[in-house]
Amino acid sequence: MNFEQILTHIKTSLGEGVILSTDENASPKAIIIHAENLVEVMGFLQKDNQLYFDSLSCITGLDNGSEANTMEMIYNLYSIPFDHHLMVKVELSREKPAIDSLCGLWKTADWQEREVYDMYGIHINNHPDLRRILMPADWEGFPLRKDYQEQEYYRGIKVEY
Amino acid sequence: MANQVQYIFDQENLRKSAPQKFKSEDLKREEMIINIGPQHPSTHGVLRLEVLAKGEEVIEVVPHLGYLHRCFEKHAEKLPYNQIIPFVDRMDYLAAMNTEHAYAMGVERMLGIDKIIPKRVEYIRVLVAELNRLASHFIALGSYGMDIGAVTAFFWMTRDREHIVRLLEWASGARMLYNYIWVGGLFYDLPVGFEERCLEFTTYLKPKIKELERVVIDNKIFIDRTANVGVLPVDLAINYGITGPMLRGSGLKYDLRKVDGYSVYPEIDFDIPVGKGEAGTLGDCWDRTWVRVQECYESVKIIEQCLEKLTGEHKRTRDFDPRALAPKKIRPKAQDFYIRAENPKGETGFFFRADGRSDVPFRCKARGASFVNLSIINELSKGGLISDLIAVIGSIDIVLGEVDR
């Protein structure tokens, strides 16, 4: 299926309002959905007989900075049997960013969402084990945020060089 | 500097920075917590595993990561596209060429110059990437053998890997971290005589892989340690995002070199070996190792075909400049872009967001194959013995540089 067919299939099955907009400039082409619908839409994309996006390849967090005041979650989906692909983007507010977990659908979401939480502080609702994964548990702040200020000392080690 | 306090020691430091999941007070009868790593040879790097065990039986494995975290994504926010390549090398440091290839390809596609890259450049890229794939598989197989008691294989494999490393050093100037594949081209053309030497090497190598197969794969002790251990069904593998030899070991014929057909792979004839469960159950540790050995043969096949092209149709010419297309300023249009490619460990992906105004990516995320593959470790090893846990870690083939990035 190409992007247009995928788009119409989602619209006919889940209703027109689910897809807020599309980004055809992106590669793979992207749909932008509302954070509230995430689990519903992703569950449909994974289980539907014609789409069958069985492989969640990559979860990316993104901070647009304080000017735009938004954060984003980007999901890259691939279908192994049908060989089609889709990017799903979700925009979040920068104050108290939170999104539902996809661990119920894909187990691979577990660690990848933990990494997003670790780097951006986006709270993952219903995540079974939401801890920092790469940074030490007592590290202050979320390093990949655009306004991140590193702490001056960590255990007497000067952080900034 | 000398008399400045460099580290404030406190007994509680470790407990605060990497808290254990299990507490010794909560343990039931006969249960115990065993800490493996971060400094343990069989964890293949600085991986720390917290194992809840009941006697010899593993109940749960909790990996603690981050000991080799070098802030790749933070660095990438401040560096121009071409200067990120050396950082990319240091992710999967055993297969730097493959990662470089994936990265350069991604940026080229964003710039729209991927179709005009000269064929010779593409063939050289595939050649060095496959050499590096061999080197990576050799380390995987050799160290896996050593993990479970077959020490000979490690010496043989490092001996043969040394030849590859020297070949790549001859081409690029570095043994492991090459910075050889550039956006839009290569650092240098292959040195004069490289193709001939490389061909000599493949003739030398083929019987050696056979030898490896006989000493490790067909060895009864090895089969006893790996067959029916860590069985990974294919549906679980897909759900966990497992890729590479691990997924193929579970019997699914899925290789991005064929599926996406990037670079000149569609022009090259090679097979994709998949696990068949010959020694035990489909998807066990033995199958994964077997797939890696078979992939070595396939890589040799690819190398030979590349060499044929590089000495024939696309042979060296006096005026060939591998840097001719390398852009001075790399400034892609504003877009989101995701590229994936087949690394020795699995699918390596890069997500880019270019803002269209600068030559620095707004966001560059790396999806490490080892990171995702490692996440299944608890599923594979729970219920087994502690010695099987070691067999499982080795069969996943992780490299911690890519897990922690």
Q: Any idea what the CATH architecture of the largest domain in chain B is?
A: Orthogonal Bundle
The CATH topology of the largest domain in chain B comes to Cytochrome-c3 Hydrogenase, chain B
User: Unreliable segments of chain B (pLDDT under 50, ≥5 consecutive)?
Assistant: none
The N- and C-terminal alpha carbons of chain B lie at a distance of 29 Å
- According to DSSP, the number of beta strands of chain A is 9
Helical content of chain A stands at: 10-25%
Question: How would you describe what is shown here?
Answer:
Chain A: It is found in: Cell membrane. The complex is a heterodimer of chains A (161) and B (405). Chain A is an alpha/beta fold and 161 residues long. Chain A has a single domain, classed as Beta Polymerase, domain 2. Chain A is built from 4 helices and 9 strands. Chain A has a 5-stranded mixed sheet. In chain A, strands 6-7 form a two-stranded parallel sheet. Chain A starts with a helix and ends with a strand. Chain B is mainly alpha-helical. Chain B folds into 2 domains: 13-64, no CATH class; 72-404, Cytochrome-c3 Hydrogenase, chain B. In chain B, 46% of the residues lie in helices and 11% in strands. Chain B has a 3-stranded antiparallel sheet. Chain B has a 3-stranded antiparallel sheet with strand order 6-7-8. Chain B has a two-stranded antiparallel sheet with strand order 4-5. In chain B, strand 4 and strand 5 form a beta hairpin. Chain B is globular and about 75 Å long.
Quick structural gist:
Chain A: This is NADH-quinone oxidoreductase subunit C. The complex is a heterodimer of chains A (161) and B (405). Chain A is α/β, with parallel strands linked by helices.
